[in-house]
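Changelog note: in this version the structure field was regenerated for every chain. One regenerated record is shown below for reference.
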Amino acid sequence: YMGSRAAKNIFCSVLSFCCLSRMGCRDSCSNVMNTIFTYKSVRFIEIKNRWLAAIYYALIIGIFCYIAVYSIWYKQQYQEFDPVVGTTSMKVKGAAYSTHPYYNLPLTVYDAYDVVNPALENNALFIATRIMTMKNQTRGICEGIDSTTGLCSHGCSSGETTYDGVMTGTCGPTGKFCNVYTWCPMENDNITQTLHGVGNFSIFLKANIQYPKWGISRSNFKTGLVDGLNRFTLDSLLFGAGYTLDFISHDGCILLVGIDYTCDLDKDIEQCTPKFTFTRIDPTDPTVFSHGFNYRFVSRYLTPQNEEARILYKAYGVRIVFYLFGQGGKFSITALTLAIGSGLGLLGIASLLTDVIMQKLFPHRELYTREKFDVIDDVNLHQIPSYIHNDVNDMEHPVGNHYDYVNDASHNGNKHNNNHDLRNQPVNDTVLNPSSPLLPEPAAESPYTMLQFQR
């Protein structure tokens, strides 16, 4: 409905413009209709020019090579593809240790159960490289550390909450932060411990995938433990992304591990093995707020006085995210037919480009263009005398030949041959004028229009 209204408005606008123009409504609308209702048919001309033919066949060969080599063979468009589905699971083993240079604490040993937390994630895992531990936290009143909403200079309103806890209405001992009711003592980033030996942790990666369309399943654990296939170290993963453990251990990072299961299923299925990519995806600029990766978690317990207490941990480390992608391809006659059909459609570009070169760059481009394009006015056809009209109907090749022949070879003179069959001339008002004298009987000659000129 909206389309019909729009068409009606456009039509009325055209009529209004035509009626207001100096040409008059009738003549203007007639010209508009003649412009719209015009049919264009292909007219073939044959040009004997070696350079033009060489360009055309060079383009044909280039397009054919693109179809056969790049599209069908390299891009494997003769195959039908099915995206992979699957999941991953990880296990981590290893040991690490830490010392505290500020407080001269004894050496502390950690195993994978201490460092990997949470123990099980969906297609991901976290390995700590630095840990801050606040032991024996209990609920009480202590000075806060929030420099945004907990400053004494902003006022310590009793009952208001800050990032640290609930303000008591008094200022702390240092005179900088307000006292808050919270878990005390507050966390202190200056007592973190760096874990050594984490880079040697072994990560056992199990990837199970399937191509549902063909019911083909694969796993990277059928041949036992293989480094780079199902067993990695944290150092090797970071090295694949272009980093070292010493560089990221302080702030942590987020590592993306891609598992590409793109396989040619027409070949031996044992050749279908994953390819891995390693990318760090968190901001690497240290000036960016909250760069790297860290998170907090707690462990609660009861004191001998039956009071609830907890241990607060703030862990910095490497968060590793695994994702599966890829597709499996098998030969399909339908896919091959579509690839060939769409490729053959590109062959028309050769003719198009050759025509452009012929009409824009070649020396005799004006003649080529004149012979290639012709206009037949249907109005003038009604003015043809009966003796010409009957002659036209009897012609094997009617007025305005559909197929012309242009000879670019060297001949004497560069004008058109004067012995043309008038029936092969373009229709115009001079030839088809009813007042013209009786036309002479045409001489027998080839159905082609011969145009000869100097090269």
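Spot check on this record: DSSP finds eleven helices and 20 strands in the chain. The CA atoms of residues 78 and 336 lie 4 Å apart.
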